[in-house]
Design a protein that fits this description.
Elements: H1 2-19, H2 24-30, E1 67-73, H3 79-82, H4 87-91, H5 99-102, E2 126-129, E3 134-137, H6 141-145, E4 150-157, H7 163-172, H8 182-190, E5 200-204, E6 230-232, H9 250-271, H10 274-297, H11 304-310, H12 320-332, E7 337-342, H13 351-375, E8 382-387, E9 391-392, E10 409-410, E11 414-419, E12 427-429, E13 431-432, E14 439-441, E15 444-445, H14 446-456, E16 466-468, E17 471-473
Parallel strand pairs: 1-7, 1-8, 4-12, 4-15, 5-6, 5-7
Antiparallel strand pairs: 2-3, 4-11, 8-11, 9-10, 13-14, 16-17
Helix pairs in contact: 9-10, 12-13
Length: 488
């Protein structure tokens, strides 16, 4: 009896708040961050009064970025071959790595039976680029050409040494599956800037490699399910079933959704399960995406010089270049968080050829995205991030040969870069030792990196929490400090 009474009381309170003539919900929303609306807003009669994409938290301070494009390079790009120039590796090629350098650093099981750890010189040459003469690899000439727009962090480190927990840790702040990822946190907290598109979109490029990646990396975790990343397929039709079946027009689908909404609403009134409300929102978003997605993926209005800037693969759906230009078009339409995953950086052997293949697929398009956003005035409030889950060892995995050597996973030091969104352009932050094995100056932990991203978006990471199963969680778990020098 008591349980039934409490349920009725809860329902009465909810009905009062929803139906009050004072409009309590509307009054409260006036104080929140303006969500913005799409220029070509399409709202159905059934959703005309829903504020499904309104933000749920105040920005704690003025945001520098409105949106994020995260170019995640899964597999662990080697810092020695790309960004972290170490002349001593050339001089000591073939010699054993000093024990004092290895120290107590963790090594993976893949080299646990290896008795010799010869240093391997980088499989690339370096030269100075930009106004500050920043050392950059010959493998990434396009990225090197925009180094003055980049904020390069050479002192990243993590505790995770295997791919899946390291990727999940970077995206969710915890190595175990089940926590919300960064894009879901921002979708939940800041809402959407475009009602016709999801706040969080994920794309996996094809042709990079066959290493699996878990969708736990773009999971909503314990947040409502409509905050999960919506994955675009690497096909001509990125979202399945956008087109109506033969004999079904748009109004037919609208009527069907209205009936579904009524049934779902009856269930929601009975059970008051938040996932029912999420299902309603997802149905309505799918309906609106029918109009928005075809226009976004149609590149016929792109000038040829823009297509050329991204590279020859730009018109092939699912390639990294194609995904980059789609990411720019999504940024133009104010999608809050766009996550691109490119596999193919896990070079345990054949590093010389493998890393050249990976950079050929990603370098030109990564740089083009930054240049394209900048020339359109979007880079100022769009944060672009490039990086993987950890770095690589300075010693060779397996036998050291000119062509066949590889590098193992290394969580102790790696490099990422950011551009725009309030980051300090032209900065190189942090320093590793002569072997790119240990960070010796300005260490940046994954949680520090996450805290800094949240700060650029106007959020104090310590105050942005969600209570689940009796505990308050946050993206940065129980640590993390904003890295002030990275902020312009």
């Amino acid at each position: 009896m008591e349980e039934q009474y409490l349920r009725r009381q809860s329902a009465h309170r909810r009905d009062f708040l929803k139906g009050s003539a004072l409009g309590l919900g509307s009054i409260a929303l006036q104080g929140l961050l303006s969500c913005g609306r799409a220029r070509d807003k399409v709202v159905s009669p059934a959703t005309a009064t829903d504020d499904v994409n309104q933000p749920l938290v105040h920005p704690h301070f003025l945001p520098r970025a409105k949106r994020v494009i995260y170019l995640f390079q899964a597999g662990g790009p080697s810092q020695m071959e790309l960004f972290d120039y170490k002349p001593r590796l050339y001089a000591m090629h073939g010699q054993e790595i000093p024990e004092s350098v290895v120290g107590k650093n963790r090594i993976s099981g893949m080299v646990s039976n290896q008795y010799s750890f010869p240093l391997a010189m980088p499989a690339a040459d370096f030269s100075r680029w930009g106004a500050n003469g920043t050392w950059m690899s010959e493998l990434i000439p396009h990225t090197a050409s925009i180094v003055d727009d980049l904020c390069v962090v050479r002192s990243m480190f993590t505790e995770q040494i295997n791919h899946e927990p390291a990727v999940i840790f970077t995206q969710t702040g915890n190595q175990l599956s089940g926590r919300p990822c960064m894009g879901s946190w921002l979708s939940y907290g800041l809402g959407s800037l475009n009602e016709n598109l999801p706040a969080f979109i994920v794309m996996l490029s094809k042709g990079g490699g066959d290493q699996p990646i878990s969708n736990a990396s773009w999971s909503n975790g314990f947040l409502p399910s409509h905050h999960q990343g919506v994955q675009f397929m690497s096909t001509q039709e990125p979202v399945p079933y956008l087109n109506n079946p033969d004999g079904v027009d748009r109004m037919d689908r609208r009527h069907a959704l209205d009936y579904l909404r009524r049934f779902d609403s009856l269930q929601n009134n009975l059970w008051q399960d938040p996932e029912i409300e999420s299902q309603i929102r997802q149905h309505e978003m799918a309906y609106r995406m029918q109009m928005a997605i075809p226009e976004i993926t149609d590149l016929s209005d792109e000038p040829q010089h823009i297509l050329d800037m991204y590279g020859h693969d730009v018109l092939k759906p699912g390639t990294f270049a194609h995904n980059c230009i789609i990411a720019r078009r999504l940024a133009e339409r104010d999608v809050r968080f766009v996550q691109l995953y490119h596999l193919g950086w896990d070079h345990h052997g054949g590093l010389r050829s493998g890393i050249r293949r990976a950079t050929r697929q990603t370098d030109q398009a990564s740089a083009a995205l930054v240049k394209d956003l900048k020339q359109r005035g979007l880079l100022e409030d769009t944060l672009v991030i490039w990086g993987g889950e950890f770095g690589r060892t300075s010693f060779s995995q397996g036998k050291l040969t000119q062509e066949g050597f590889g590098r193992d996973h290394h969580p102790g030091a790696y490099t990422i870069w950011m551009a725009g969104g309030g980051t300090k352009a032209g900065l190189v932050y942090g320093e590793t030792d002569d072997f790119a094995h240990n960070v010796v100056k300005d260490r940046v932990h994954v949680h520090d990196f996450q805290a800094t991203i949240m700060h650029l978006l106007g959020i104090d990471h310590e105050r942005f929490t969600f209570k689940s199963q009796g505990r308050r969680y946050r993206l940065t778990d129980v640590s993390g400090t904003v890295v002030g020098p990275l902020i312009a």
